[in-house]
TrEMBL record:
The Peptide methionine sulphoxide reductase MsrA domain, residue ranges: 10-145
Reactions performed catalytically: [thioredoxin]-disulfide + L-methionine + H2O = L-methionine (S)-S-oxide + [thioredoxin]-dithiol; L-methionyl-[protein] + [thioredoxin]-disulfide + H2O = L-methionyl-(S)-S-oxide-[protein] + [thioredoxin]-dithiol
Signal peptide feature range: none
Documented EC number(s): 1.8.4.11
GO molecular function terms attached to this record: peptide-methionine (S)-S-oxide reductase activity
Keywords linked to the UniProt accession: Oxidoreductase
InterPro entries on file: Met_Sox_Rdtase_MsrA_dom, Met_Sox_Rdtase_MsrA_sf
Identification of the protein by name: peptide-methionine (S)-S-oxide reductase
UniProt source species: Citrobacter portucalensis
């Protein structure tokens, strides 16, 4: 008997979309990561760097994705680049919006400083240039990746090791002992 799994999509923004894409592309249960810009509605209608994550909720939960997101970008920093890098979770419907708000509230206790990440409704997505898609996995050992993405992967291996796709990392030439 063949069963089909329904995939879900969530939008995440907070830092450079190359970094965010590299982090979420390294997790199991992720079908696709689309890198680009997301716009919400109302005061946040302008596009901000973000990713769309298409995932299998039977393998990795929305809660795990949000917790990973909060811990792999500066979710407590209201720095000067927040217009470009909005700290956000973009929900695709009202049910997902309410789930994300509840998960975000539960995760706040993990941080010493207030979390500035907000939940917004998804409105629109613009993809990045083709040559910049899958930035980390096309050359994972370039200096930018080593400086900014490898530390995030080190954190993932320490905190969420059972969700990290170590096979994908090693197949791409990433030495797990070096990150």
């Amino acid at each position: 008997m063949h069963t089909t799994t329904t995939l879900n999509t969530i939008g995440l923004g907070g830092g450079c979309h190359w970094c965010t894409e590299g982090v979420f592309s390294s997790l199991i249960g992720i079908a696709t990561v689309n890198q680009g810009w997301i716009a919400s509605i109302g005061d946040n209608a302008q596009f901000s760097e973000a990713i769309e994550v298409v995932f299998d909720p039977t393998v990795i939960s929305l809660s795990t994705l949000i917790e990973t997101h909060l811990h792999t970008h500066a979710s407590t920093s209201n720095h000067s680049m927040r217009g470009k890098y909005r700290s956000a979770i973009y929900a695709y419907d009202e049910v997902q919006y309410n789930q994300a708000v509840n998960i975000l509230d539960a995760c706040r206790a993990d941080f010493e400083q207030p979390v500035i990440t907000q939940v917004y409704f998804f409105k629109d997505f613009k993809a990045n240039k083709t040559e910049l898609i899958d930035y980390f996995y096309t050359a994972p050992n370039r200096p930018f990746c080593q400086r900014y993405i490898h530390p995030k992967l080190t954190f993932l291996l320490a905190r969420f090791s059972h969700y990290v796709d170590t096979h994908k990392l090693t197949e791409s030439g990433v030495e797990l002992t070096s990150i």
